[in-house]
Amino acid sequence: MKTIYLDHVATNPLHPDVLDAMLPYFKEHYGNPLSVYESGVKAREAIEDARERTASLVNAKAKEIIFTASGAEANNFALKGIAYANQSKGKHIIISRIEHHSILNTARFLEKSGFAVTYIPVDKNGIVNPADVEKAIIKETILISIIHASPEIGTIQPIAEIGKIAKKKGVIFHTDAVASVGNIPVDVQSLGVDMLTFAAHQFYGPKGAAALYVKEGIRIVPLIYGGIQEGGRRAGTENVPAIVGMGKAAELAKRDLQKRTDHVRPLRDKLIENTLKVDKVILTGHPENRLPNHASFVVEYIEGEAMMLLLAAKGIYAASGSACSSKALKASPVIISIGIPAHLAQGSVVFTLGEGTTEDDINYFNETFSQVIKRLREISPFAKGWEGLEDSTCTARK
Amino acid sequence: MYSAKVMDHFTNPRNVGEMPDADGIGTEGNPVCGDVMKIYIKVKDEKIVDAKFQTFGCGAAIAVSSMVTEMTKGMTLDEALKITKASLAEALDGLPPQKMHCSNLGADALHKAIEDYKNKQQK
Question: What sign for the dihedral angle of Cα A131, A132, A133, A135?
Answer without folding.
Answer: positive
